[in-house]
Amino acid sequence: MSIAEKFEELYGSAPEGVWAAPGRVNLIGEHTDYNDGFVMPFALPHTTVAAVSRRTDGVLRLHSADVEDGVVELRVDEIAPRSDTGWTAYPAGVVWALREAGHAVTGADIHLASTVPTGAGLSSSAALEVVTALALDELYELGIERPQLARLCQRAENMYVGAPTGIMDQTASACCEDGHALFLDTRDLAQQQIPFDLAAEGMRLLVVDTRVKHAHSDGEYGKRRAGCEKGAALLGVTALRDVAYDELDAALERLGDEEEVRRLVRHIVTENHRVERVVSLLKAGDTRAIGPVLNEGHASLRDDFRISCAELDLVVDTALSAGALGARMTGGGFGGSAIVLVEAVDAETVTKAVEEAFAAAGYTAPRVFTAIPSAGARRLS
Ligand code: ADP
Ligand code: MG
């Protein structure tokens, strides 16, 4: 059954339209987005698809093919931040954020189905928010530009769901282009689409979903954010983005015996620099040379930011021993996914090595797929 047919079965008439928004993987620039820094995600072919119709009676009906809840019915004038802890908080939060911003959204029927793995660090939450926001923007003719749409979705996730995420995920889902990575300055949201077509150069980027998410990850994210803010305050800057790479040694000296803050600052400053290096290398057509930069990024996340875990380290170490050009954890950390840059001819060997290493360690089998830079959110019909 197609998504439009399922919509009709649920709600009794055909949807006004069908939209899609992708998950994303971050090539480089980890935990920099809440430090006003640089990130470089690209969109995956995996999408969350929404069939949507307007309503004029203030009712919001939500259904997802991926959960067992059935149709959930809410009233748009009653939804309020943190009132809802289930999956419906993401789309309801978008409706709340749109209405908060003064847009007259008077209800909707929404049916969703997704191929984005959830909780794998590939941003199924942003895909869900962005597809909802884009559908409502177009149906209600709100005329919101993509970067602002992403901001509204971030606001939904921060204020309504209560997850303190940065702006990267929603911007990636809303703004990425086919065959490109998105170089995003999270301070002013300036964007550059950087051509990133690995297949044409005989390479592949593998995503390895470790299938683990360690329970303490949310609390640890909050601690890293607070630590970065402390670092910025101690250094007298608005955000760690303002510490230039060639001022790093002086900044670390000023932080004296604040050992933990020093490590966080070192990661953010060197990571911003790595994003700029990757952008330069890709622009120069020197794609293979980004491998060592990815490796440095992993070491920094493992040793300075301290958000890796045994499963992610095993992917990276095994892939590099098996001949990968570069590898690093991606996303929030403590589980989720790693990315591995390989020569296309080595993809199978590297995949097999990682699978065997996981089996030997007694871990759940990882899910491995090739990430093809794909289009951002769009209308399908
Ligand atoms: P990630 O964004 O890395 O996948 P999150 O924890 O941020 O992980 O978001 C995952 C949550 O988003 C799920 O637990 C669920 O509540 C919600 N979600 C994502 N996709 C869907 C979907 N297709 N249907 C229902 N809920 C979804
Ligand atoms: Mg998420």
Automatic annotation (TrEMBL):
Residues 5-54 form the Galactokinase N-terminal domain. GO terms for cellular component: cytosol. The active site is at D169. The keyword Metal-binding applies. ATP binds at S64, G119, A120, G121, L122, S123, S124, S125. Keywords: ATP-binding, Carbohydrate metabolism, Cytoplasm, Galactose metabolism, Kinase, Magnesium, Metal-binding, Nucleotide-binding, Transferase. Mg(2+) binds at S125, E157. Residues 280-359 form the GHMP kinase C-terminal domain. GO terms for biological process: galactose metabolic process. Residues 90-175 form the GHMP kinase N-terminal domain. Belongs to the GHMP kinase family. GalK subfamily. Catalyzes the transfer of the gamma-phosphate of ATP to D-galactose to form alpha-D-galactose-1-phosphate (Gal-1-P). This is Galactokinase. It comes from Streptomyces flaveus.
